[in-house]
């Protein structure tokens, strides 16, 4: 199991601080119901990303492929940036999409 600091470091490597800061998203994030849910899901998400079985570059490429396959465009934009930040080429990303 990874530490909170390790999970946050991986999150920063992937997203580089890129997150939706729209008023709509912020109102959802700030709601009393959302806080515990976001904390719970965030810890589990980045726990998986911090596992040693695959390097970050490969995980990024897999995530892009999954999101593209599911048609989740908003998340796909973030993860394409993350894939580029972590060493994947535009050609590799285009190939998995």
What's the overall geometry?
globular
Helix content: over 70%
End-to-end gap: 31 Å
Proportion of strand residues:
under 5%
Tell me the major beta sheet.
none
Q: What sequence of helices (H) and strands (E) makes up the elements?
A: HHHHHH
Number of β-strand runs? 0
Quaternary organisation of the protein chains: single chain
> What value does the Rg take, in angstroms?
14 Å
Low-confidence stretches: none
What class, by secondary structure content? Answer: mainly alpha
Features:
97 residues; mainly alpha; 73% helix
List the helices and strands and how they pair.
Blueprint: H1 4-15, H2 23-30, H3 34-49, H4 56-70, H5 73-85, H6 90-96
Helix pairs in contact: 1-3, 4-5
Description:
The chain is mostly helical and 97 residues long. Helices cover 73% and strands 0% of the residues. The chain is built from six helices and no strands. It has helices spanning 4-15, 23-30, 34-49, 56-70, 73-85, 90-96. Helix 1 (4-15) crosses helix 3 and helix 4 packs antiparallel against helix 5. The protein is globular, with a radius of gyration of 14 Å. The mean pLDDT is 82.
What is the structure about, briefly put?
This protein is 73% helix and 0% strand. The chain is mostly helical.
